[in-house]
Design a protein that fits this description.
- There is one protein chain.
- This protein has about 210 residues and is of the alpha/beta class.
- The protein is built from eight helices and six strands.
- A hairpin with a 6-residue loop joins strand 4 and strand 5.
């Protein structure tokens, strides 16, 4: 707890004065334009990667950034409830599924024995099994990480309330994968299925 208190004190000293007006405005009600579905991994934080400000992103984080099928019956309601709230109540304009490199959840999906002593994990990462099956090399973590993002994007587009908004041009669904070691964000081209690194002003393509 000591580390958290220190972090809070630094926040109050440095960031709060700069963002106070945003927090005061956000206190009247949230109006995020983005829903970001990301992994719970401590190394892949969307607010840090995208420079988020108070009230800007509605975040859903779970093991491996997985989206359950809209008609799943095995009790995985938390992620689906957050998705429906973001789309139907908050009217977000963009949904991003953000996977990442060195994902332990994907590793567990590939090799379930690695998480056999950790309750609930294998039941959850079963959601990634179609991504493994679709990968050319079923044991290649990087390929399966990318396929899992594609899978979650496809599943999102099968949610009726998302599909109708996408068709009307009121909602966009995207996928990406973040490289922890090199900081590179790869964005999914849904037409080609390829992941392309985002060009930065300073460094160009990696």
């Amino acid at each position: 707890m000591k580390r958290l208190i220190q972090g809070y004190q630094d926040f109050r000293k440095r960031r709060w004065p700069q963002e106070r007006r945003r927090y005061e405005e956000a206190a009247k009600g949230q109006k995020p334009e983005y829903l970001i579905i990301a992994c719970s991994d401590s190394r892949s934080d969307p607010a840090t990667v995208f420079g988020g400000r108070p009230g800007e992103f509605f975040l859903v984080r779970n093991i491996a950034a997985l989206v359950p099928p809209h008609d799943a019956t095995n009790g995985v309601y938390g992620t689906r409830a957050a998705i429906s709230f973001a789309v139907m109540a908050l009217n977000v304009r963009n949904i991003l599924v953000m996977g990442h490199a060195q994902c332990g959840g994907i590793a567990a999906a590939i090799a379930p024995e690695s998480a056999r002593d950790i309750p609930y994990v294998n039941d959850w990462v079963e959601l990634a099994k179609p991504a493994i099956a679709h990968a050319h090399n079923h044991g290649d973590n990087t390929e399966v990480e990318r396929e899992a993002v594609k899978l979650s994007v496809r599943r999102l587009l099968e949610y009726p309330f998302i599909a109708e908004r996408v068709k009307a041009g009121n909602l966009q669904v995207d996928g990406a994968r973040f490289g922890i070691a090199n900081g590179v964000l790869e964005v999914l081209d849904q037409k080609t299925g390829a992941f392309e690194p985002v060009k930065t002003k300073r460094f160009g393509f990696f």
